[in-house]
Design goal:
Immunoglobulin-like; mainly beta; 4-stranded mixed β-sheet; disordered N terminus
């Protein structure tokens, strides 16, 4: 390793539950305007969105697809998240190109869509 090289930061993996109530952490607490998801700058971040609906007949047909977008127009989408595919991930370098925050939202017309518009991801 040369003096100019810096050790690689450990990638960060985060699971976010997706349900008709919104985006939730692993303990079931909602993310929202006052509670952003924080990610360390210059770190590869993998966010896995997990289908978190209770198994009602309504939820069986409900499908989510999440887009993460930065203020400069960069975006990345998950695959479909639903009963038959319960997890889908996106990975990105936090803070790349001086990005300071991202927003995640569901792009499909789904149950609870009004609650799936507000996941703020802040680079710290």
């Amino acid at each position: 390793m040369t003096a100019a090289a810096t050790p690689e930061k450990t990638p960060v993996e985060i699971k976010v539950r997706v349900s008709e109530k919104g985006f939730l952490d692993e303990k079931g607490r909602p993310y929202g305007a006052k509670r952003a998801l924080q990610v360390p700058k210059d770190t590869m971040v993998k966010i896995t969105f997990v289908f978190g609906e209770d198994m009602t007949s309504l939820a069986v047909g409900d499908t989510h697809q999440i887009t993460i977008r930065a203020e400069d127009g960069w975006k990345q989408e998950t695959g479909s998240v639903w009963v038959m595919n319960r997890e889908s991930s996106v990975s990105f370098l936090a803070g790349e190109k001086s990005r300071t925050q991202y927003r995640a939202y569901c792009i499909l017309d789904c149950i609870g869509m009004e609650h799936l518009t507000n996941l703020l991801i802040q680079v710290v």
